[in-house]
Amino acid sequence: MATMKIPMTVPSPRVDADQLFKAFKGRGCDTSVIINILAHRNATQRALIEQEYETKFSDDLRKRLHSELHGHLKKAVLLWMPEAVERDASILKRSLRGAVTDHKAVAEIICTRSGSQLRQIKQVYNNTFGVKLEEDIESEASGNHKRVLLAYLNTTRYEGPEIDNASVENDARTLKSAVARKHKSDDQTLIQIFTDRSRTHLVAVRSTYRSMFGKELGKAIRDETRGNFEHVLLTILQCAENSCFYFAKALRKSMKGLGTDDTALIRVIVTRAEVDMQFIISEYRKRYKKTLHNAVHSDTTGHYRTFLLSLLGPNV
């Protein structure tokens, strides 16, 4: 469930556009007004505000936000503005073709989205950037990591709840052999099962693997694979089991230790605020005995903090 709160009575897009225009006038801008409006409008409402702003003022709202805002707040607000598919495509482009390739962000987007979402992302990516997503992955990823990403993008998976117990047991045995022998040919078996099977099936395989062999499948993967290949397999497995815990853990990592990984913090909060952030907040509290709101409050400051906390909703 979403967490960002929309007012009971929402002003018209024209009124919101007028208020934003006024907030930009003069030296500097009234950042509080920008946050109070944009952090409390859903994707459809934000799109209508953008249309109204351009129609009335012959100006691009995103470009104006880019010129008026600064630092992490600017990054967060600009990532918030597009609808989900356009946003995911832009995250993938920056993660693949930026100054430093962010393989974890690529895995996060690709391996946590449904088949229909991935098909839309690929289309928007091609239309927006004039290149296929698969071509950028071919260029920036390598080895088994690349093979997993491409297979996951292009395989049509069953997404329903039904499983076949015989197939589950067979996959558990096959995976045991694949991670035990360490032959290169076995990597393809891992890739096929992890990218071809439904999430429900993988959860059943994980449970069956534990029952049959007395070991966690995740630990077996960690023991026998390395680097980005290991990470993407574990991402698929963790998201099949509990995607909200996966995102709670990603948020925890972004704020743990010295410094904050603001790129990851922004990405997870912005991409999940209209989807399942309420459940992520619950997982965070259950796993780490601290509210996500308090963690974000401790690691951020100023208007940037206000914006992220607005997306998280009330601290209850």
TrEMBL record:
Keywords: Acetylation, Annexin, Calcium, Calcium/phospholipid-binding, Repeat. The keyword ATP-binding does not apply. Belongs to the annexin (TC 1.A.31.1) family. Belongs to the annexin family. A pair of annexin repeats may form one binding site for calcium and phospholipid. PANTHER family: ANNEXIN, ANNEXIN D5. This is Annexin. It comes from Camelina sativa. The gene is LOC104701420.
